[in-house]
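Continuing the batch. This is chain 6 of the set; chains 1 through 5 are on the previous pages. Same settings as before, nothing changed between runs. Recording input and output for traceability.
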Amino acid sequence: MKYRPLYLAISLLVIGAGAFSALRWGFKIGIDFTGGSVLEYRLPDGQTRVIKSGPLDEAGRVKTKSDLEKSVGGPVAEVRFENVGPTIGPELVKKTFYALLISTSAILLWVAYQFKNIKFGISATLATIHDSLVLLGSFSLLGHFFGAEIDFLFVTAMLTILSFSVHDTIVVFDRIRESRKKGISDSNMYSLANNALSQTMTRSLNNSFTIIFMLVALILMGGETVKWFSVALLIGTISGTYSSPFVAVSILVTWDELQKKFKKH
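Output for chain 6:
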């Protein structure tokens, strides 16, 4: 906890870079939201390439294939061509936002109730918001530089990493609660937090690394269809592993210290 200003500064730097990217370049929205055409080709070397674009007619389909053959320097075989409508409409997006708001509020209240202190609930909730902002900002940057899209799989990945982040945070908070139950004084949240992190850090890292190894394998060998979904999960896993000890607990300790200072004055 001695270095918590550094941890929070790192988080602000990462979120700030993502916010700049989102405001400057926005997001590359997938056809799940906009509708369009999906074309899949087999290249001369045996690999496949998926191209997504706005709705194409027959002439656009032929031109896309011709342009690809020129870029790869050989004939390509069309494996799949689909014109699809948007599967995620504005109404569904709005309902998803409301569902996230309700679930986040429920998590805040439930954690606060279980730990008998609203500070725990708000700290855990801010850590989950941190992870959401990191993932969104990262995909704005990845979309601008590498073509990563925001699609239905991205939404699935975001919901998944939020639950992962909250779970890891609660493990640390539970160690703090156990220390209190054992009669250890709770007058010094700084020491309680350091002890809790020391006891849970190895477990958290081991758990996260098993997930990270699997996701790296999927990114390298899983193909184009699941590549960015795996990247989103990887970013979320790393961010969630970081935010539980270094954001949620840092906020909790800082809040506790500020509250004591105000009480003294």
